[in-house]
Amino acid sequence: MSPNILAISAVLTIGCAGVGAQPLVPSGELKGDAWVHTQESLAATVQQADVCLPSAATGGAVICGKFKGLPKLSGRQVPIVVFLHGSSGLGLKAIGEWQQWLAGLGYASIAPDSFALAGHVTYKSPIDKESYERILALRASEIEPTLAALRSQAWADIGSLILAGTSEGAVPVARYPGSEFAARILYAWSCEANYFVKEPLNAFEPGKPVLNVISASDPFFSRSNAWLGNPQAQGHCGAALKDVPRAAVLLVPNAPHTLLNLPATRSATAGFLSLLTKP
To answer: Whole-prediction pTM value?
Structure first.
């Protein structure tokens, strides 16, 4: 990897979210009864994963679809982004648009489908921390079977893996204890103590690059959220990444929680990836 990534090792703060009147804490809601994947549902998370492959991998046009429906390919190996979706699942249109954009840059991506589990729990925040942690453990369990499936794919460059996620899906990215990934990307998560976790439990590897992109006034993880549960929160991963020299944090002013496809996000992501691998 290029040492030039050190050039973007900074916290870029643009804009500031003010804290106004304190509204009442809303009532949370839990639905569903499935808290743990079965072996069958774990396999299905991969088979039902959304995949986008660049032309270098296909030997022709970009191909996007479900993992189980991939045709026989004649291209070469390419770097891969493993992406963990947020609590709304793969139905979020922004994810597919982001994957197609990545393919245009020469990167394959695979987004396992957590909702392959029948009765998968869903929620409206805030709920209790114990329930959040059980959901986050469920999400973390989806990484290993995705890696196992990629090892059997001729187009997958296993030496050039990036782990990424957004919101709920970014927490397992920050916590992942393995060393298989060359870098990590965290969208819409602050890596801090707050209502969403018992403890952050970040597991960043000091020598490996990390990119964090989040709204400067994120409705869930900044101090603009009156029930954040941490009055000292910075609203980004800067403190968690202080001992990771090859890291960058971008705060985007006035951005929504879902910011995958904003120009600032895409620019930061493209620049970060370009310093990791050369597809």
So the answer is: 0.91
